[in-house]
Each structure stands twice: as C-alpha cells, then as structure tokens.
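Try it yourself: sequence plus heme C, in.
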Amino acid sequence: MKKDPVIWCCALIFLVLQGVANADEFRFKGGDEDEGKIAFERLNCIQCHRVTGVELEDPKTERVLNLSLAGEIRFVKSYTDILLAITNPQHVVTTQYSGLLSKAELDGEIEPFMPDLSQDMSAAQLIDLAAFLDSVYSKNLAEYRAMVKR
Ligand code: HEC
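Structure, out:
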C-alpha cells in the first residue's frame, strides 16, 4: 500500500503543535498565596476588582470598577496571562469589558484601562500576586486548569 505523504505531513505538524502546546509554561519559583492576597489589598487592586470566591477588604478609597476576577475566562487563561495582565495591563482590553465601561470611558474621556501598577510593586509582590490568582483561577475554572501543567 502506498503511504500518502500528505497524511504523514499532517501527522508531523500535529505532533509538533502538540509539543508546543504542552511545553512547560514558565513559572516563578515560590510565591506565597496568602502574601499575594495581602498584596492584592495593599496595592489597591480591590479598588477595581473582586476575586470570585475570596473575601477581601473593602477598598480604602472609592471603588472605581467592579470587575470580578476568576469568575469566568476572559483574557487570563494561564499563569503567563496573569503575569501579562499585571505587568502589561493595557493590552488586556476585550470586548466583554467594553460592556462594563461607560460611554465616556470608551470615548477616552476617562482612562478606562487598568493602571500600570508594576511601578509600585516589588518583584516579591508580583510573584505572590501571581501565586494567589493562579490558585483561585485553578480552583474556579476548569478551562484554566486544563492549561496548567504542574
Ligand atoms: C483602576 C482600576 C484597576 C486597578 C486598580 C487594577 N485593575 Fe486589573 N483590570 C482593570 C481593567 C479595566 C481590566 C480589564 C482590562 C483593561 O481594560 O485593561 C483589568 C484586568 C485585569 C486582569 C485580567 C482579567 C481577565 O482575565 O480579563 C487581571 C489578572 C488583573 N486586572 C489583575 C489586577 C491586579 C493584580 C491588580 C493590582 C495590582 C489590578 N488588576 C488593579 C482595572 C484595574
């Protein structure tokens, strides 16, 4: 029987892509979930975010937005996405969010984006925040868990 080269090519491409998809994701070593929760409050993430299933302090200043994290999959689907969302937040705008923002915000009269808080946080806080959110996303969302390779 003659082997069809197209099938072999497809099989090879499939295997390569699978290897890429399963490649170990970069993760910081360490990270303390409890410290991450504290950092989440101290850095005032609570001004704009709740975290589904987690009790957090009320923000000291007025609540700006009410975006729940880890309740549904939006931008964040992996640990890497958590790091990206925190350190490079402006690229996270998704259509789902535009529904939450007022017309003035969408027209750019009020800054709708998440501020760049990486200026204000230590590396330890970033690693702890990522550990905290990673654990909540893993607990709450099967689609996130599917991405996580431990
Ligand atoms: C001033 C409001 C504000 C503050 C403060 C804020 N965020 Fe955000 N955050 C947003 C908005 C708005 C988005 C949606 C994306 C966008 O428009 O940039 C977002 C998105 C995110 C996402 C992506 C969620 C997803 O899957 O779509 C994560 C994770 C996140 N923020 C974490 C944090 C953390 C951690 C802090 C504190 C260090 C923080 N945020 C502080 C407004 C804020």
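One thing you can check immediately is this: The mean pLDDT is 80.
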